[in-house]
Amino acid sequence: MKKKIILHLCADIGSDSRAYQLDPAYEVIMIGEAIGVENYMPPANVHGIIANPVCTEFSTAGGFDKIGDLDKGMFLVDHCLRIIKLANPKWWVIENPAKGRLQERLGKPLHKYQPWFYGSPWTKMTALWGSFIMPDKLFTKWDDVPKNPNLYVRPGRPKPSLAFLHKSAIQYLPEYAWCADRIKCDADLRSLCSSGFAHAFKRANP
């Protein structure tokens, strides 16, 4: 049987496409920093595309009064969109932080989710644009989510946030054991996609 091709754009670790990578029915092609989406032309018969353009210029971590270089940030996004248009896949998705400024260029996200909706016991509100089927939540109440007592919780907050975890926390996150040796900085850890969401997304978008 011919494998379905999944392109994972702006991907060096590949947590978003991990579920497809584990399935022998798929061939996942990761286009990371070494190649660069600006230099990439898609092959024929692409089945699906996941894109994780770097969110630095879209960040509002310093508050919404912080103005990043949106044109610089859109350089990678525009190339992701170019590849998506050329490939014309069955489904595609662009991921970025929900509180970032990418929505000022792409409009309102199609969906937003928290990792704990899919069993990863932390917060990281994520926005998704594209053409895809959003998987149903596995959890709707935080109290029902199996907790990880080893994760740091900021004073006054009810849940741990991936955005405030140090890279050393990778040792307490068994769902990422497969890539622990690739986590070189805090940003690497904080960029990881919920494993529960990644697998639920694949089930909804086979």
Indicate the topology.
Layout: E1 4-9, H1 18-21, E2 26-31, E3 46-51, H2 70-87, E4 91-97, H3 103-106, E5 111-113, E6 126-131, H4 186-190, H5 195-204
Parallel strand pairs: 1-2, 1-3, 3-4
Antiparallel strand pairs: 4-6, 5-6
Produce a short descriptive summary.
With 206 residues, the chain is of the alpha/beta class.
Largest beta-sheet details: 6 strands, mixed
CATH architectural label: 3-Layer(aba) Sandwich
Fraction in beta strands: 15-25%
Oligomeric state of the chains in view: single chain
CATH C-level class is Alpha Beta
| Computed structural class | alpha/beta
Number of domains: 1
CATH fold label: Rossmann fold
Q: End-to-end span in angstroms?
A: 15 Å
How many β-strand runs?
Answer: 6
Which consecutive residue ranges, at least 5 long each, have pLDDT under 50? Answer: 57-66
Average per-residue pLDDT, rounded, comes to 91
Specify the overall morphology. Answer: globular
- Helicity range of the residues? 10-25%
Strand order of the largest sheet: 2-1-3-4-6-5
Q: Total number of helical segments? A: 5
For the CA atoms, what is the radius of gyration? Answer: 17 Å
| Run of helices and strands | EHEEHEHEEHH
